[in-house]
Specification:
Layout (H helix, E strand, L loop, with lengths): L2 H14 L8 E3 L8 E4 L5 E9 L6 H18 L3 E11 L5 H18 L2 E9 L4 E10 L15 E4 L5 H9 L5 H12 L3 H10 L3 E4 L4 H13 L2 E4 L10 H6 L5 H10 L3 E3 L5 H8 L7 E5 L1 H14 L4 E7 L3 E4 L1
Parallel strand pairs: 4-5, 9-13, 10-13
Antiparallel strand pairs: 1-2, 2-3, 3-6, 4-6, 7-11, 7-12, 8-11, 9-12
Helix pairs in contact: 2-3, 4-5, 6-11, 7-9, 9-10
C-alpha cells in the first residue's frame, strides 16, 4: 500500500486509540514510527512489528532469510534487540512442501543469527506466495530510537548501500548480471543488528530503516517528525553494483511512482542530479540499512566504532533548518 493511501486508512484509527489514554504506549499510531513500543516496567519496553511480502528472489532459502531480516529491521531501527518471532505464511497448495520448508528454514536460521526464538505462526492457502514475521524485541524505555530526534547540524549516516529494489526488479525481467543479484541478496540478508548496537553506543539523535518508502520517503518522514530538513549529497550516497546501470535502463518498479507522488512536494533536487538517479532514490528497498542523525561531536567516534567492528557506514549528508529533503 502506498504512503498516501496508508495515511488515509489509518487516520480514523488515531481517534479510537488516543495517546493520552495509553500512557505506557511510547510509540504508536499517532507517532507513526517504524514499530510500536510499549513500556512494561521502568527498565523494559517491548517493541512489536510485522512485515511480509511476495518473493523477491527465486531461491526459497534466500527468500525466507531476506523476509526475516526485513521484518526484524524495524526492531533495530527502534534501537532494540530481537527476542521472539511468529511466522506469517501464505503459500499455494501446489507449492512443493520441500520448497516451503526451505523458506521457513531461511527465516528460522536468520532469526537464530539475531539471537531470537521462533515460537509459532499462522498459515493460509494463497495463490501467490507470501512470507514474513511478526517480531517482538526489547529496549530500555529511555533508549528508544525514533525518527523524531534529528537536529540541525547533525550528520546523516547510512549503514547499507542502496539499490536492492531496482536490482530485484531487473532480475524479474531477466536482464541482470548474476554478480549484481548475488550482491543484492547478500546485502538484503545482512541483519541490521550490529549497526543498531553501534548506533546506540554512539548516541545518535534519530534513526529509521530504509525499506518500502525508499531513502527519500523514509528521510522525509524523519524530517517531518523532527521538524527539520535532510540534505543528502548525491556523490556520497553508496549504491550496490549494477543499481545505477539498471536505473539508466529505466527498470523501475511501480512503487517508485507511488513514492514520488507521495513525497515530491517536499523534495528538492539540485540541477546536477540526473532524472534516473532521482527515480532511484524514490525506489523501494527491501531489508535496507539504517539512516541515523548523529551529533557532529559524536560522528568521529561513531565512525571509529563502525570501523573497529568491520561494519559499513557512510556519511551521506546533514540535517539543516527547514522541511522535507534535498539532494544536491
Amino acid at each position: 500500500m502506498g504512503p498516501e493511501t496508508l495515511a488515509q486508512v489509518l487516520r480514523p484509527l488515531e481517534g479510537i486509540f488516543r495517546a493520552e489514554q495509553y500512557p505506557d504506549l511510547l510509540v504508536g499510531l499517532e507517532v507513526s514510527d517504524d514499530a510500536a513500543v510499549y513500556r512494561i516496567t521502568d527498565e523494559v519496553a517491548v517493541i512489536q512489528t510485522l512485515d511480509f511480502f511476495t518473493p523477491v528472489v527465486d531461491d526459497p532459502y534466500d527468500y525466507g532469510a531476506i523476509a526475516a531480516a526485513n521484518a526484524m529491521s524495524d526492531v533495530y531501527a527502534m534501537g532494540g534487540q530481537v527476542v521472539l518471532a511468529l511466522n506469517i505464511c501464505a503459500f499455494p497448495p501446489s507449492l512443493p512442501p520441500e520448497m516451503v520448508a526451505e523458506v521457513l528454514r531461511g527465516g528460522a536460521e536468520k532469526l537464530v543469527e539475531a539471537g531470537g526464538v521462533l515460537a509459532g505462526g499462522h498459515t493460509i492457502d494463497d495463490e501467490e506466495p507470501k512470507y514474513g514475521m511478526a517480531v517482538m524485541g526489547i529496549v530500555h524505555p529511555q533508549q528508544v530510537l525514533t525518527k523524531g530526534g534529528a537536529r540541525p547540524g547533525d550528520a546523516l549516516v547510512l549503514t547499507k548501500p542502496l539499490g536492492a529494489g531496482i536490482i530485484t526488479t531487473a532480475f524479474k525481467g531477466d536482464v541482470t548480471d548474476p554478480a549484481h543479484v548475488a550482491g543484492a541478496v547478500a546485502s538484503m540478508k545482512r541483519l541490521n543488528r550490529g549497526a543498531a548496537r553501534l548506533l546506540q553506543r554512539g548516541g545518535v539523535n534519530a534513526c529509521t530503516d530504509i525499506t518500502g518508502f525508499a531513502l527519500l520517503g523514509h528521510g522525509c518522514e524523519m524530517a517531518e517528525k523532527s521538524g527539520v530538513r535532510l540534505h543528502f549529497q548525491v556523490d556520497r550516497l553508496p549504491f550496490l553494483d549494477g543499481a545505477r546501470d539498471y536505473a539508466e535502463m529505466w527498470l523501475f518498479p511501480g512503487g517508485t511512482c507511488n513514492n514520488e507522488r507521495a513525497y515530491q512536494h517536499v523534495v528538492h533536487f539540485g540541477p546536477q542530479v540526473p532524472e534516473e538517479l532521482q527515480q532511484l532514490l524514490y525506489t523501494p528497498e527491501t531489508s535496507g540499512g539504517l539512516l541515523a542523525a548523529v551529533p557532529r561531536d559524536r560522528l568521529e567516534s561513531l565512525l571509529a566504532l563502525f570501523a573497529a567492528e568491520g561494519e559499513p557506514c557512510w556519511v551521506v549528508g546533514e540535517v539543516v533548518e527547514g522541511a522535507g529533503a534535498e539532494v544536491t
